[in-house]
Write a sequence for this structure.
C-alpha cells in the first residue's frame, strides 16, 4: 500500500490481507497488531477480524466469482486492487447486514486511497456486476473438485479426506473449517474452579458456555483483549484447544511425575501437565527456538506454576543425561497444521510439496525422544493435522522399529469414551475441536 490505512475495520482488514499476500505473514498476529495500532473498539475489531478471516476462508471461491465478472485476468491485477475486490465480494456474497451500495462505495474509496485511483471505475463495475448476478454455478469435473471450490480448500486435501472419511464427512469437515471457533479457556484448578471462573468472566461481559467435552474448560466469546480481564491477570485460565488438552489427559500425568515436553512452544501442554500434576513434580519444556520457549515462563508465572523449567534443545539430538529419565514424554511434533485451518485459514494454501518431508522429521524425533522414557513410562505422540501419513503411518513405522513400545488404550470424557486402539483423531465437525491426533505408547517394563 502506498498510504497508511485509516483506523476503521475495513481498512484494517485490507491492510492485513495485503500483508499476507505480500509476505505470507500470519494474519492473526498481524491483524491483532493493526487493531491495536488503529485503536479499534470491540465491535470494529470484531468486524475487522471477521472480514479478514472471511476472505481467507473463501478466497478460491471469491476469485472464481470475480473472474466471471472481470474482463482483466486476476493474476494481472495489482495486489492491492485484488485484495479490495475480494473484500468487497466477500461482503456482498456472505454478509447480509451491510448494504450492497455501501460495500461498493467503500471499495471505490479504498482504491482511491490505497491503490490506483484510475482503477476505481473497474472495481466499481466488477462489484456492481456481482450484485446484479446471478452468481455462477460451482463447477468441477469431480465431486472432490466441486467441494474444493465451494469451500476454498485445496483439491489434493479434499481427495485425501474423501478417501478417509467419505464425501459427506469431508463436506462437514470443510464447512466446519470455515466457521468461526470460540476461544477455549482451560480452568487453572490450582487457583479456581469452573463455576467461580464462569461467574467472574460473565461479570466482565464475556459470553461463556460450558465445554461439551471438558468439565474444566469454558468456551468464550466477546472477550475483547484477554489482558484486560481480571480473571486472566489473576491466572484463572489459559487458552488451549480442547483436543490438545484431551491429549494430555490421555497421557495421564500424575503428581510427582518427571515430564518432558519435547516440542513445547507455545507451552499449552506443559501448563496442562503441570496443572494435572497439581504443581508437584517437574516439567521440562523444550523447544529449538529460544524466543518461543521464553514465552512459556511468564505464562507459568501468571498461573502460579512453579514446576516448569525450560531448556533450548533439538528433539532429534540425543542427551545422555535424559536417557530413561522421564515418566512421560510429550512429543507434539512439527506437522502440516491442517487441523487448525478454522483458526489459521491461510494454512490451506500451503504448497503440498513443502509438507512431504514432515514424516521423516517426525519419525526422527520419535526415535530419539523414546530413549528418554523410563521403562514402564509413556510416550505421547501428537500432531495438529488430520493427514494419515503424519499420524497413524508414523506411529506404525515407529512401533515396527521400536519393539520396546506398544500402543495403550486410554479413556476420555464421553461422548468420546475409550480409545481402544490407543490412537485417536479429533475432528472439527465431530468433536468441535481442532483437527488433532494423539497416540499413547507405553514402554514395556
Amino acid at each position: 500500500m502506498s498510504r497508511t490505512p485509516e483506523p476503521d475495520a475495513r481498512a484494517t482488514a485490507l491492510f492485513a490481507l495485503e500483508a499476507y499476500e505480500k509476505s505470507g505473514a500470519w494474519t492473526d498476529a498481524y491483524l491483532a497488531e493493526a487493531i491495536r495500532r488503529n485503536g479499534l473498539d470491540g465491535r470494529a475489531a470484531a468486524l475487522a477480524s471477521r472480514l479478514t478471516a472471511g476472505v481467507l476462508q473463501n478466497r478460491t471461491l471469491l476469485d472464481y466469482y470475480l473472474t466471471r465478472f472481470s474482463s482483466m485476468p486476476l493474476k494481472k491485477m495489482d495486489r492491492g486492487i485484488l485484495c479490495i475486490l475480494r473484500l468487497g465480494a466477500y461482503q456482498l456474497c456472505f454478509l447480509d447486514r451491510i448494504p450492497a451500495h455501501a460495500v461498493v462505495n467503500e471499495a471505490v474509496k479504498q482504491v482511491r486511497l490505497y491503490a490506483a485511483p484510475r482503477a476505481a471505475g473497474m472495481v466499481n463495475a466488477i462489484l456492481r456486476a456481482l450484485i446484479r448476478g446471478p452468481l455462477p454455478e460451482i463447477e468441477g469435473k469431480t465431486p472432490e473438485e466441486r467441494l474444493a471450490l465451494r469451500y476454498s480448500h485445496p483439491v489434493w486435501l479434499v481427495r485425501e479426506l474423501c478417501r478417509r472419511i467419505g464425501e459427506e464427512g469431508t463436506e462437514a469437515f470443510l464447512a466446519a473449517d470455515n466457521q468461526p471457533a470460540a476461544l477455549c479457556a482451560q480452568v487453572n484448578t490450582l487457583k479456581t474452579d469452573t463455576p467461580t471462573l464462569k461467574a467472574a468472566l460473565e461479570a466482565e461481559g464475556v459470553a461463556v458456555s460450558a465445554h461439551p467435552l471438558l468439565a474444566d474448560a469454558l468456551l468464550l466469546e466477546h472477550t475483547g483483549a484477554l489482558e484486560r480481564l481480571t480473571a486472566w491477570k489473576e491466572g484463572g485460565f489459559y487458552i488451549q484447544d480442547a483436543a490438545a488438552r484431551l491429549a494430555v489427559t490421555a497421557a495421564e500425568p500424575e503428581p510427582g511425575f518427571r515430564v518432558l515436553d519435547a516440542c513445547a512452544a507455545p507451552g499449552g501442554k506443559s501448563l496442562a501437565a503441570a496443572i494435572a500434576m497439581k504443581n508437584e513434580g517437574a516439567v521440562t519444556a523444550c523447544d529449538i527456538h529460544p524466543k518461543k520457549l521464553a514465552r512459556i515462563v511468564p505464562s507459568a508465572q501468571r498461573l502460579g506454576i512453579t514446576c516448569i523449567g525450560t531448556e533450548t534443545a533439538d528433539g532429534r539430538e540425543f542427551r545422555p543425561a535424559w536417557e530413561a529419565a522421564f515418566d512421560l514424554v510429550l512429543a507434539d511434533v512439527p506437522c502440516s497444521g491442517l487441523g487448525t485451518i478454522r483458526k489459521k485459514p491461510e494454512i490451506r494454501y500451503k504448497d503440498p510439496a513443502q509438507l512431504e518431508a514432515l514424516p521423516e522429521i517426525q519419525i526422527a524425533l520419535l526415535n530419539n525422544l523414546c530413549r528418554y522414557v523410563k521403562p514402564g513410562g509413556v510416550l505421547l505422540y501428537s500432531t495438529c493435522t488430520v493427514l494419515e501419513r503424519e499420524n497413524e503411518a508414523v506411529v506404525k513405522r515407529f512401533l515396527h522399529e521400536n519393539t520396546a513400545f506398544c500402543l495403550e488404550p486410554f479413556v476420555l470424557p464421553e461422548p468420546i469414551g475409550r480409545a481402544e486402539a490407543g490412537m485417536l483423531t479429533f475432528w472439527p465437525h465431530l468433536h468441535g475441536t481442532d483437527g488433532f491426533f494423539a497416540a499413547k505408547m507405553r514402554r514395556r517394563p
Remarks:
- The chain has a mean pLDDT of 94.
